Amino acid sequence: MCGIVGYIGGQQAAPLLLEGLTRLEHRGYDSAGLAVLGPSGVRVAKQAGRVRDLGDGLPKRFTGKIGIGHTRWATHGPATDANAHPHTDESGRVAVVHNGIIDNAAALRLELADAGVELVSDTDTEVLAHLVARSTADTLEARTAEALARVEGTYGIAVTHADFPDRIVVARNGSPLIIGVGKNEMHVASDLAALVRYTTTVAHLADGEMATVTADGFSTYLVRTIDGAGHVGLAATDRRASEVEIDPSSYDAGEHDSFMHKEMLEQPARAEAVLRGRLDEKFGTGHLGGLNLDARELRAIKRVKILGCGSAYYVGQMGAALIEELARIPADAEAASEFRYRNPIIEPDTLYVAVSQSGETIDTLLAVQEIQRKGGFVIGLVNVVGSAIAREVDGGIYLHAGPEVAVASTKALTNMFLAFAMLAVQLGRVRDLSISDGRRLIAGLNAIPGQVAEVLGREEELAEVARELAGAENLFFVGRVRGFPVAREGAQKFKEISYRHAEAYQTSELKHGPLALISPEVPTVAIVPDDELVERNVAALHEIAARGGPLTVVTHAGVDLGDLERTARRIDVPRSERELDPILLTIPLQVLAYHAALSLGHDIDKPRNLAKSVTVE
Ligand code: G6P
Questions:
Q1: Residue 575 CA from chain centroid, whole number
Q2: For residue range 243-282, what is the model confidence (pLDDT) as tens digits?
Q3: For residues 61 and 501, what is the distance between their CA atoms, to the nearest angstrom?
Q4: Angle at the Cα of 24 from the Cα atoms of 21 and 29, rounded to 5 degrees
């Protein structure tokens, strides 16, 4: 969601912080700010808008070798200069940046106001600055810990204080906080993306942990409450920094105009990475060691319940269909954001699957915790290694998609599908899926990376279609059964970056309502794989054509569209095994969304009102 950076060392902090914030902008980009601690105390610059606006407006002499910065995605209060971080106390000596949500902020704000504090923003974070400032403890660590002891909720924070000009104090509870070790300098960030250009020696704080960061090192500790008056003690932990294996260039868009474009084209290579070592050709099965389930346990599973948000939810629906079809186990997907709120029944013989690129999405994380609280077994399909969901689940499949920066998920989504396919084959093979069917599917999976490359190779042709679709204010994306989650994902991608109203519908349901909206101004993108429903699908397309609705049909070569061939535009994707078709049908929809947004001149990686990882409910 929001992004945090910090620097302490021998260089001027402001340019480094700005650079770090630029790297974090995908996490939130409605406002940004910096606080540096220099000879004349704390100086703050913050404003609504992008990081580059902040940089452009920065005073020339914004000096200081300690600083913290933040890029925001508004939750408490609109995107205004006052609500941008860092927040300070009344004396201007304390500066705080914060990710997460303080649940009891309203009560704390009232309490502070009663005590005569003048609050200048609408944010929950501001209370932290005042609480730190009002603590009378001896050290900045104890003051911060006392302030944190008063708050309920989630946070990653960084604090500077003019009275303690040699340190940054950081803390984590539910929102990532990473310390990067340099040479006589140290960095702080909420995301590796901001650090890897400076150092790959990093330490990840655990939940509940705090750290003091000085120019020459860091120390970590846990907070204990030692009396009823809110006093705290600090117990040292021995967290060490270690090397992360990451190619810093994976956080650069390189020659591409956007990360989405780069990440889309990376899909063949990343798809190979998720499959590598996990396909057992001899026995026609998947080989997913991280599940922590042996064959007997896999057999005991009676139901599969998949939870995710946004694109992860739609790919979860594709996954549920794969599992039902290949393993004949009842399976369904649900939006993780809804799950917890209906007091869900957690069954001992159900396999729960949490799907998340970031591993941080709070709705998905809370669903995992709800399942575990009730004794359920949950695995994760997660991209970010060591992320919150990855750490909390009982087993899982890492997606190996590499860092994904664009808000619109492409390569992570493809790898989620492939992970589901391997899981479905493995579940199927301990049941009734035959070895020959298993081998057929493994061969199909092996071919996918090349077939994805084939679709991506037709970008120019797809761009032309996209430019035309971008001219419509309203569009339908329709599909049936396997094709319906494809339509949902296609519509989601289209709307989130082109801002056109794209609605997904089951092709079969059109006649029960939405057909009323079909007209020459409302194009439909129809997903029509060559499967057992192809004739029915084509029949429904005639109903659209009869109302003058323009059609783009994503299908397979050889599918006969009859007299629609004259008017409909077709996009043929390579044939896979039927069960695996959804992912190849999805790829052209990514390209359509991308080129539609490009032709409309939108900021593709930072669509309005959205953020990459949504760490608030
Ligand atoms: C946000 C993003 C979506 C993403 C969803 C789930 O809403 O805008 O693109 O699909 O979060 O994210 P996750 O990291 O859990 O996969």
A1: 30
A2: 988 777 778 888 999 999 999 999 999 999 999 999 999 9
A3: 47
A4: 85
For residues 223 and 215, give the distance between their C-alpha atoms in angstroms, rounded to a whole number.
23
- Whether 65 is catalytic is no
Give the residues surrounding ligand 1 with Cβ less than 6 Å away: 309-312, 356-358, 361, 364, 407-409, 610, 613-614
> What pLDDT was estimated at residue 514?
86
The tens digit of pLDDT for each residue in 125-153 reads: 999 999 999 999 999 999 999 999 999 98
pTM of the model: 0.86
Q: Which of 348, 589, 340, 611 is nearest to 488 (CA)?
A: 589
Atom of ligand 1 nearest to the CA of 358: 14
- Judge whether 384 and 355 are in contact, CB under 8 Å: no
Report the greatest alpha carbon distance in the chain. Answer: 82
- Which atom of ligand 1 lies nearest, measured to the CA of 492? 9
Best probe residue, ligand 1, of 356, 614, 615 (max atoms within 8 Å of C-beta): 614
Element (H, E) at 395: strand 395-398
For ligand 1, pick from 29, 73, 311, 314 the residue to mutate: most ligand atoms within 8 Å of CB: 311
Task: Name the DSSP letter for residue 174.
Answer: B
Q: Name the one residue in this structure whose structure tokens are 């699957």.
A: 353
Among residues 2, 46, 65, 262, which one is catalytic? 2
Phi, psi at 309, each rounded to 5°? -125, 150
Specify whether 309 is catalytic. no
What is the three-class DSSP state of 591?
helix
The span from the CA of 6 to the CA of 357, in Å, is 25
Residue to mutate, 409, 420, 586, 608, ligand 1, most ligand atoms under 8 Å from C-beta? 409
Residue spans of alpha helices (H) in 382-527: 388-392, 411-429, 435-456, 459-469, 483-498
Strand partners, 305: 332, 352
DSSP string for 152-207: -B-EEEEEEETTSTT-EEEEEEBS--EEEE-SS-EEEESSGGGTTTT-SEEEEPPT
Name the residue with tokens 């396997």. 482
Nearest CA to ligand 1 atom 3: 310
506 beta partners = 479
